[in-house]
């Protein structure tokens, strides 16, 4: 299992706009070359190309529209409007029609690059073959494009599982976790530094291989089941007093010190693992690993924005690099507990600096010299000051008989 600093390197980031930047640069360079080679007809060439690229998708959209209207208008659209739902679903939206119309207008105003008959032949032939190749999948979206669309529109399996885990479980139980731990400590007489503030959060384990053990002590001998927290009963989906519970474990470090914490696996990963084991799901091991990473990223984003769950959880991503280490799980849990302790110490505000005594310095000297000026007000609350000098005996009074002092 990797350290906390390497954990972020495993999580895929959302895709950016770099393909758009490269495409715009390539189009600008190509258009510039055409202007240099054929300055008198470059506008006509650009209009012709745009018209071909927009007419092809329109013809393919008409092919899709025939299928939707004949076989799926009632089951998929349930009588919804043709213009508002069916046409945009087939790719016959306003943007494509507007681009095709502007390209046609520009071609009619500019000098055509080819004779009119040749231009129509090129336009119809290219558009028809585009629709054919698109329908056959030759011009279909690549895996990167499909992945980008699914991530952007939240259509992955991981997105649904993450939202289900949050809405159906974490949002319900995490607000009551601290109270349950306080009751547990009172009944079990736990009041020692081993149950630190960081261990009063729910530690959620997310293994990359999605292989979950139902008993943590079977996976690591340094982890021992202690007891369950008090049950949390919530009326849910017609079930009265549905029970939600958490388990407390003792984790032993390399020095034999025990740490109590509430830890459990993310149960939706059981679904991902079962899908990868069923051939009918079409969900292999590479797809499973990718979905686990997306599940982690999506759940982290959801919990970061949740006020009910803030500061009540900690996600632990488990890599499967060191499966031969029998204590890898306990080491990962302890590493996160210690990391949380360090973070809390860093955010603790430093103590106030001691201010000099108000009677010291210029203002105090003026007061002792008989001046009527008041000392400067304190900028902070007064603090006690102690002298480190050794105590000295009191001086006896000396009788002064000098008449000049009378």
Describe the structure.
This protein has 406 residues and is of the alpha/beta class. It has 2 domains: 4-152, no CATH class; 157-347, Rossmann fold (3-Layer(aba) Sandwich), CATH 3.40.50. It is built from 14 helices and 7 strands. The chain has helices at 4-7, 18-37, 42-71, 82-89, 94-109, 116-136, 143-152, 157-173, 177-188, 216-219, 268-277, 285-304, 328-347, 361-368, and strands spanning 202-207, 223-228, 232-236, 239-244, 247-252, 258-265, 313-318. The strands form 2 sheets. Strands 2-5-6-1-7 form a 5-stranded mixed beta sheet. A hairpin with a 5-residue loop joins strand 5 (247-252) and strand 6 (258-265). Helix 3 packs across helix 6 (116-136). The longest helix is centred in the first third of the chain and has 30 residues, at 42-71. It starts with a helix and ends in a 38-residue tail after the last helix. Residues 350-382 have low confidence and may be disordered.
